[in-house]
């Protein structure tokens, strides 16, 4: 029984959820796109696990569907499932994912969302601490197990289309485009290059012994939360979310 998960994660929440799915082989969407991993022609299950970004799907997931799955024959995939992690407002992200899949001739058989500790800082500027993280996880433990069982049993549960889908889709597509953002590298940077390994957009370079954030950022906050020197700053933001994965597990390169 082959079960492959394509995961996009920045701060580790989605990776931690993917690990709960039984007998699954997990690969970053970036590995598919960069040719480091090739999906076998025929597999029993394909999972897509990702965070909700600005009410919709993150740019790397859009690319995975359009530029990777969309370029191959997917008739050998038996069951496609998706899990969206979010911090309280999943909006119509799963329905958007279903639309993207339908556009390339694939069908989503199962979709579920899970509320996770918040990793996004621009709205509430203080990062969640350890106690808040544990409390948030306790609340969803049963739900995660339930989702894992559903997937093992190939339950069919197609996400509902939701109200305001077109509005959210337009908004999220625009908001999730890579761009220059207000993240800055401060004088605390030691040039250790950890952020260059974890950035999902390969958007950080080391110049003159210091990190430089370039102009293709998707505001995922991985560099902010994972810098060992807390050297990446965002206006008025405080603290780092330590997340649910080891920093090394988030290395893309
Ligand atoms: C750019 C960005 C936009 C986000 N937008 C939403 C949103 O619209 N609704 C929501 O509930 N959570 C939102 N979040 C929170 C993430 O979905 C949530 O923290 C997720 O679990 C992070 O997953 P990861 O750790 O796998 O990257 C957003 C996070 C980021 C970084
Ligand atoms: S992880 Fe932090 S200290 Fe290391 S290079 Fe990046 S910004 Fe600098
Ligand atoms: S520069 Fe930082 S916030 Fe922007 S995409 Fe890379 S890791 Fe994410």
Overview of this protein structure:
The protein is an alpha/beta fold and 253 residues long. Helix content is 30%, strand content 18%. It contains 8 helices and 9 strands. The strands form 3 sheets. The protein has a 5-stranded parallel sheet, sandwiched between helices. Bound molecules: flavin mononucleotide and iron/sulfur cluster (2 copies). One iron/sulfur cluster binds next to helix 8.
Count the E strands: 9
What is the tally of helical segments? 8
Return residue spans where pLDDT drops below 50 for at least 5 consecutive residues: none
Bound molecules: flavin mononucleotide, iron/sulfur cluster
Sequence-ordered SSE layout with sheet pairings:
Blueprint: E1 3-7, H1 13-18, E2 25-28, H2 29-33, E3 43-51, H3 59-68, E4 77-86, H4 93-103, E5 110-115, H5 130-152, H6 165-175, E6 184-185, H7 194-198, E7 204-207, E8 210-213, H8 222-226, E9 232-233
Parallel strand pairs: 1-2, 1-3, 3-4, 4-5
Antiparallel strand pairs: 6-9, 7-8
The structure holds flavin mononucleotide and iron/sulfur cluster (2 copies).
Residues 9-14, 51-55, 85-91, 116, 118-120, 219-221 line the site of flavin mononucleotide (FMN).
């Amino acid at each position: 029984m082959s079960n492959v998960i394509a995961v996009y994660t920045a701060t580790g929440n989605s990776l931690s959820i993917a690990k709960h799915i039984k007998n699954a082989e997990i690969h970053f969407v970036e590995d598919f796109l960069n040719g480091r991993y090739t999906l076998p022609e025929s597999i029993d299950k394909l999972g897509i696990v990702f965070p909700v970004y600005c009410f919709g799907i993150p740019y790397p997931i859009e690319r995975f569907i359009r530029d990777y799955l969309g370029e191959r024959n997917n008739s050998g995939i038996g069951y496609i499932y998706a899990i969206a992690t979010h911090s309280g407002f999943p909006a119509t992200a799963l329905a958007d994912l279903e639309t993207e899949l339908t556009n390339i001739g694939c069908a989503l058989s199962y979709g579920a969302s899970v509320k996770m500790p918040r990793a996004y800082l621009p709205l509430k500027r203080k990062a969640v601490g350890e106690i808040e993280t544990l409390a948030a996880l306790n609340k969803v433990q049963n739900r995660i197990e339930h989702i894992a069982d559903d997937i093992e049993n190939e339950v069919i549960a197609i996400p509902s289309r939701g109200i305001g889908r077109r509005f959210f889709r337009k908004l999220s597509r625009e908001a999730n485009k890579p761009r220059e953002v207000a993240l800055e590298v401060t004088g605390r940077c030691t040039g250790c290059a950890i952020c260059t390994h974890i950035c999902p957009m390969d958007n950080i370079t080391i110049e003159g012994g210091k990190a430089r954030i370039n102009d293709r950022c998707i505001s995922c906050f991985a560099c902010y939360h994972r810098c060992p020197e807390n050297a990446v700053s965002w206006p008025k933001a405080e603290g780092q979310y330590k997340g649910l994965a080891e920093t090394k597990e988030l290395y893309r390169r």
